[in-house]
């Protein structure tokens, strides 16, 4: 079935399906590129620490980078998700050097930073998502945790093909390693739509200047397209408003996932 539908068609169909579902809740989503507004919005909602990978105080953004802003029918910000695009020989080198979080990266990394991951090295054109925030009263039932990463993936695919799709999940500082593992695998695969989730740091993590359990979410382009195809196939049964419960992952440490879901080449429209 996948061979019969082009990547562009899957991207367009998944965007339409996601937009149709989220519109039923009165939520609109806008694609933006002004990351200073993203950080200001997050700090206005009490977030003191932000993922440096999406903070203009720490990194320089490229033309392929964007973020999504979700608003309710009163025009209030209720969710964000960011996505960046890199061209690298080895994505793990971007992590080891801390260049993912800092431009330019620090010269001294410290001897305690160690990376060990079951995912083999990969490179090429890599998209990296994170900065997922959902306002507390919309967590657990709005399904924005599903919609935002998938929609960003579809938009990135529409912009230009990529080779790999990635994100990171940091544990709740109070969780032991096994609990962090269980949560990260569930969220990364079942909610965010990645093919695999593996721990890559269990110890000192320089961007946080603390010990952390970090998981890397990864999918090839074929696997990312398959996740969008699955959204299309399941959209009729995707019930927003179900499963009202507390969020499964501590979002403030998650790296990581409409009125206008459009590229700069398109006119903004309401839905």
Number of domains as seen in the coordinates: 1
Q: Got a strand count?
A: 7
| CATH architecture group name | 3-Layer(aba) Sandwich
- Quaternary structure: single chain
What profile does the largest beta sheet have?
A: 7 strands, mixed
End-to-end CA span = 29 Å
- Helix tally equals 6
- CATH class identity: Alpha Beta
Strand order of the largest sheet: 1-2-3-4-5-7-6
CATH H-level name... which superfamily? Gcn5-related N-acetyltransferase (GNAT)
β-sheet strand percentage: 15-25%
Using only CA atoms, what is the Rg? 17 Å
Helix and strand string, N-terminal first? HEHEEHEHEHEEH
Q: What is the approximate shape?
A: globular
Write up this protein.
The chain is an alpha+beta fold. The chain has one domain: Gcn5-related N-acetyltransferase (GNAT) (Aminopeptidase). 29% of the residues lie in helices and 23% in strands. The protein is built from six helices and seven strands; from the N terminus they run αβαββαβαβαββα. It has a seven-stranded mixed β-sheet, with helices on both faces. Helix 1 crosses helix 6. The longest helix is centred in the first third of the chain and has 17 residues. The radius of gyration is 17 Å and the shape is globular. It starts with 6 loop residues before the first helix and ends in a 37-residue tail after the last helix.
Question: What is the topological layout?
Answer:
Blueprint: H1 7-23, E1 28-32, H2 35-44, E2 66-71, E3 77-88, H3 91-96, E4 124-134, H4 144-159, E5 164-170, H5 177-191, E6 196-205, E7 210-220, H6 221-234
Parallel strand pairs: 4-5
Antiparallel strand pairs: 1-2, 2-3, 3-4, 5-7, 6-7
Helix pairs in contact: 1-4, 1-6, 4-6
């Amino acid at each position: 079935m996948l061979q019969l539908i082009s990547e562009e068609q899957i991207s367009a169909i998944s965007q339409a399906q996601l937009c149709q579902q989220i519109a039923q809740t009165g939520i609109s989503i806008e694609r933006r590129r002004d990351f200073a507004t993203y950080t200001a919005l997050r700090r206005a909602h009490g977030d003191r620490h932000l993922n440096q990978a999406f903070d203009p105080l720490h990194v320089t953004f490229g033309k392929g980078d964007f973020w999504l802003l979700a608003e309710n029918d009163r025009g209030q910000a209720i969710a964000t998700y960011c996505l960046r695009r890199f061209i690298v020989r080895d994505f793990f080198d971007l992590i080891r050097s801390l260049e993912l979080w800092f431009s330019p990266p620090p010269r001294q990394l410290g001897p305690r930073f160690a990376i060990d991951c079951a995912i083999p090295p990969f490179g090429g054109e890599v998209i990296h998502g994170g900065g997922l925030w959902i306002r507390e009263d919309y967590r657990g039932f709005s399904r924005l945790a599903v919609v935002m990463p998938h929609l960003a993936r579809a938009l990135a695919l529409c912009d230009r093909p990529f080779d790999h799709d990635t994100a990171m999940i940091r544990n709740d500082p109070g969780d032991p390693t096994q609990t962090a593992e269980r949560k990260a695998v569930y969220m990364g695969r079942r909610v965010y739509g990645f093919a695999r989730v593996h721990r890559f740091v269990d110890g000192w993590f320089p961007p946080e200047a603390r010990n952390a359990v970090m998981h890397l979410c990864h999918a090839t382009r074929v696997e990312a397209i398959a996740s969008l195809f699955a959204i299309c196939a399941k959209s009729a049964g995707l019930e927003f408003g179900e499963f009202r419960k507390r969020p499964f992952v501590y979002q403030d440490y998650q790296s990581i996932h409409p009125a206008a879901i459009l590229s700069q080449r398109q006119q903004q429209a309401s839905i």
